Amino acid sequence: EYRFPIWWRFIGVGFASVADVYSNINFLSTKDLKVAGGMGLRFTVDAHERINIRFDVAWGRFKSIGFYLGITEAF
Fold first, then answer.
1. What integer pLDDT is reported at residue 32 of this predicted model?
2. Residue 74 three-state SS
3. Residues near 37 by Cβ (< 8 Å), separated by ≥ 6?
4. Closest CA to 34 of 4, 58, 54, 12
5. C-alpha–C-alpha distance, residues 9 and 58, integer Å
6. Cα-flanking dihedrals φ and ψ of residue 27, to 5°?
7. Collapsed DSSP state (helix, strand, coil) of residue 70
8. Model confidence over 7-66: pLDDT tens digits?
9. Distances (CA, A) of 69 to 53, 54, 62
10. Angle at the Cα of 40 (from 34 to 33), degrees rounded to 5?
11. Cα–Cα distance between 74 and 17 in angstroms, integer?
């Protein structure tokens, strides 16, 4: 994830990930890894308490797309 200031309390975000889920450690492989990425916007409500309203759009494998809206973040 990369965050960058835009203006006033607005922050832009770009992110990417690579992952997979396996039912058994013996099946670990890199050939079926899933790649995803996206971008988002954060609005800081309270900088001291680190409370943000966030909106993200993400793309994944097979042209899947998701929109996410949330309040607060893990970091």
1. 79
2. coil
3. 14, 15, 16, 17, 58, 59
4. 58
5. 22
6. -100, 10
7. strand
8. 999 999 999 999 988 888 887 888 878 899 999 999 999 988 889 999 999 998 878 899
9. 8, 6, 22
10. 5
11. 17
